[in-house]
Amino acid sequence: MLQNSNTADYIVIGSGVGGLSSACILKDYGKVLMLEKLHRYGGTSYTFRRGEFELPAGPLGFSYPDYVNSMFERLNIGRMVFRRKSYQIIAGKINFVIPDSFEKLSKILERIFPEENMEKAVNELKKVSSEVKGKFVWREKLCRVNEQRLKNGALKSISCDMDMVDYSVSAQEYFSSFLRDENAVNLVSSLGFKKSEQSLGAASIMWDIFCESGIWYPEIGIKGIMDSLFKKIGSKGFSFVKNMEVKKIRQEEDGFVVSCERDYFSRKVVSNIDPAFLFEIVDADMRKKLEPLYNKTHGASVLTVYAFSDNAAIPFESTHGLYYPFMDEKNEADDNRFYYREVEITVLNRLESVRYGRDVVILRIPVSYEEFVCKTKEEYYQLKSELSKELLEVVAPLIGERFTILDCATPLTYEWWGGRYSGSVAGLRWDDGYAECLVETPVENLYLAGIYAFSIPFIGGFPSSLFSGILAGELAVDENES
Ligand SMILES: Cc1cc2nc3c(=O)[nH]c(=O)nc-3n(C[C@H](O)[C@H](O)[C@H](O)COP(=O)(O)OP(=O)(O)OC[C@H]3O[C@@H](n4cnc5c(N)ncnc54)[C@H](O)[C@@H]3O)c2cc1C
Q1: 426 CA closest ligand 1 atom index
Q2: Model pTM above 0.85
Q3: Positions of E strands within 124-254
Q4: Does 51 score more than 60 pLDDT?
């Protein structure tokens, strides 16, 4: 028999931005219990400390701050101030700061690839992104989020029944039909210099995010936002239980038994955990119903290295450099395992709210989960240390050698921190034409919130997770209470 303290009107599993935003809605409608595996709330949108340095665990900014501010109004945490970040592509002779409009982008790319019709390519990106932006498939209809109406609620912001144009063709295939230069095709289809599987719809949204709409950093930092959200939920009717990993969920006639070290009961559950892991912990009946959701492939993971220097000379002025060692004539490290990959270099001390008095860089590079699977812990730590050094070495021809490693995070770290299947960082694979909304599951009264609640994070990772949390909360209370 469950005790009263173990029952709630709503259980939220996981306290990332998706979980916290749904709790922020639900707390006005009943008793909410949040169960979190880690020792703190915030999920991947938080920080950790290494000596004097407070370092971001995951996001380094996000897109569509106007959508985000409308959602903050909905959650009554007020609007926030954001500053736009700058991204510089550093690929040998191809070296430019990504501008803030498609018109400027077109001019830059026409100069770099004078033989190619870059005006047409950029016009296509612009046209498709304006078609796809803010849209997703929900209840088999194409819907759109209205940014203004978001402040009144996620459900009130959605209008459906739009005409659906299919943009699921591969961007690579599409642009190859009228561009010949391989670098030009790769750049417009993936914002990089490698072949990509992204759809035309997803590639256009990505360019919109980096160029026209921008990537922004909140003045109070990402942790500051999570602290505000948690504070807003307050303690009235809300219990937060940390260090409490959910290991099983069983459905009964009138609700769910959620099992950790002990059993909790609730009529409705919002899950902020990766559906691939959720799938493993639900009972057989639920698994059968959820099966169609789980044939989605997860996106790539990254290796992240944090390093500092007292006397670095970083030769670019943007907050972020996207560096391609194999295109840099000065870089001769072709025996380095990272030579042929893209390295994102973030100069952390250039973000407004971060002040260290030293240069702190975050290096990120795409890696696969399999590269880090080791037989023993010792082997894993040894590999982590070797690969961190190797990553620092491959960027040394650009940023110099005067950096000291603070720490690093691998796909296994992301699997543990966020509970992300194979350490994926940016959600599921971006090869659908439109994002599919997965917030409502085939199991009645079980909702998804977070980055995996959409097949593509259609307004960017953090904003989509925030939106999904609000939507999950509103749907969970919708039937009877709201
Ligand atoms: C390295 C990295 C870089 C990123 N960069 C960006 C970026 O620049 N911009 C951007 O918009 N997005 C970025 N993202 C995506 C980002 O993580 C999301 O935007 C956002 O933080 C996702 O939030 P979420 O709600 O899905 O929850 P998460 O942050 O994934 O949190 C899920 C929570 O659930 C908990 N949990 C998991 N399993 C259980 C269980 N069984 N029981 C109890 N609790 C459990 C976890 O401990 C965690 O607290 C990045 C992610 C990573 C990992």
Answers
A1: 15
A2: yes
A3: 135-138, 141-145, 158-159, 215-218, 238-241, 248-252
A4: yes
